[in-house]
Amino acid sequence: MYSFLINAAYLFLFNFTSPFNFVFGEYIWERFYWIPFPGWIFYFTIAYYAGRHYEAVIRFIQVYKNWVIVAPFVTGFFLLYFYHSGFLVIHSSKRIDILVHTLSVIAFVLYFATKMKSIPSLFMVINKYSYGIYLLHTSYISILIVLLALLSLNIGIFTILLLFIVSITASIATIYYLNRFSFGKYIVGKVDISNKPKTVKKTKTILVSDNQHSS
């Protein structure tokens, strides 16, 4: 709760106030406030708590499963309403209402993850390349937006889907090919790109009979 209040108060300051009149004030209010830890502390707290008390979290989600299933759609509706009504028009993930929406999505994903008998291979691939995707996806989104503007191509709501698929696919491809070079891991993180199946080294077990012990 404390981390939520700290995070919410921090974002409230930058979401609903004007930049202070000093050097770099505009830049801090527009971009730099994304970086300091108070803007992320709630997510780290949730991750720690969910990992530390995983069984309790899953039980809670299962008990309130109806709310968990509905919550992302409700919070998503308010995100869109606040944006299109002009109440909160910041175009980034560092919005105060994103805190609640993110929490609802995490619970939603965890609930359905518990229903899976095995982890889909697509999820494993994304997990494997997740760090590099985080680093690169915004660059590819920016490039694609510029290309769409230059081509005067407007595909409406499908633009979101296109940006999502292309940015992730391009990021994974970049990570894969950069990791083929020795310096690649220093740019996008180290990823095991070998297709060789992992082998388990067998240890030789020596059985000693009772007669050998007595001798």
From TrEMBL:
Keywords: Membrane, Transmembrane, Transmembrane helix. InterPro entries: Acyl_transf_3_dom. The keyword Membrane applies. Residues 7-174 form the Acyltransferase domain. One of its GO terms (molecular function) is acyltransferase activity, transferring groups other than amino-acyl groups. It is found in: Membrane. It holds the Pfam family Acyl_transf_3. The keyword Transmembrane helix applies. The chain crosses the membrane at residues 7-25, 31-51, 63-84, 96-113, 133-151, 157-178. Belongs to the acyltransferase 3 family. This is Acyltransferase 3 domain-containing protein. The lineage of its organism: Bacteria, Bacillati, Bacillota, Bacilli, Bacillales.
